[in-house]
Amino acid sequence: MRDASHIELRHLRTFLVVAETENFTRAAERLSITQPSVSIQVKELEAAVGAQLFSRLGPRVALTPAGRSFRERAALVLQKLNDACQAVQDTEDLAAGHLSMVVIPPLNVPWIPPVLGRIAREHPGMAITLFEESADDLEIHVENGRCDLGVGILSHASPNLQYEVLRTDELVLLTPPDGAFAHKRSVTAAQVGEERLVVLPESYVLRQESNAAFRRARVIPKIALEVDTVEALLATVAEGGLCTLMPKVVLEGRHNLNLRAVPLDGWGCQFEFGIIRPANEVDSAPAKVFSDYLREAVGAQPQSKTKPKPKAKPSAARRPGKQPKQG
Predict the structure, then answer these.
(1) What residue ranges define each of the domains in the chain, with the CATH number in brackets?
(2) Per-residue pLDDT for 316 more than 50?
(3) Which pLDDT belongs to residue 291?
(4) Between residues 112 and 281, which one has the greater pLDDT?
(5) How far is CA 166 from CA 69, 303, 324, in A?
(6) CA-wise closest residue to 60 among 33, 12, 27
(7) How far apart are CA 275 and CA 80, in angstroms?
């Protein structure tokens, strides 16, 4: 097999024009180069493939059997190159392009549907694949390249990722409008400890943070139900007249549940939510559009991407060996 490393695109283009015009002079005119340059490029190509591609018949040339075989495949190579260039242009113009992204369950309903809806209306050529994953798995998917962007809790833990804060939110008590705490300005850990709670499993980061707050207050909570999904948990709170602890952001887009958010007095449970992307990479056009629309949707201003913060000593809620499941 011949080494094709010496074949350049100019050789293919020149070959195809000569094959079409059947004349070196006319090919030179169409290519805006000299006739000797055409002859040289054809000879270089024939030397590279190891076969004569044209029969010289005076001023006219004709393809040899080897030339006819080469012509079809050479045209396919140039067409694939043109298609690739057009795909890039379409992506940059947002006439096409694909974005793969991942989000944690608490933010999926509040933040994502308005953004996807706007993209569908304004950029119908864009395709988006959305995954819902745990906070830990979200970072893994972005870091290993499976997803272009993540939207979730910012850990600031990986040097291979950039973290952009869109909102800081606190843990609050969620209760139905007729619940015991619905009309209170705030509640303490001791007060919440007297009520039956609906909670996420202990593998969830949000559950671990609330557990840590109860431990700091030396309160043992009354766990009535453990529910493994955010949607089912919130619906259970609304239907069962119970309470739960969640970031306030989970109520956005879920107004039909009619739940009240009551601040927690002195608990100090805060979370940073935002965009996670690979470090040292420039956003593609689809990723930039999604990020811009998400900032607008949540009322955030563009920020510089933050580097990972020095790791603090693990809290009781995140001791080594425990693997948080969901954000």
Answers:
(1) 4-92 (1.10.10.10), 98-166+272-318 (3.40.190.10), 170-270 (3.40.190.290)
(2) no
(3) 94
(4) 112
(5) 58, 8, 22
(6) 27
(7) 35
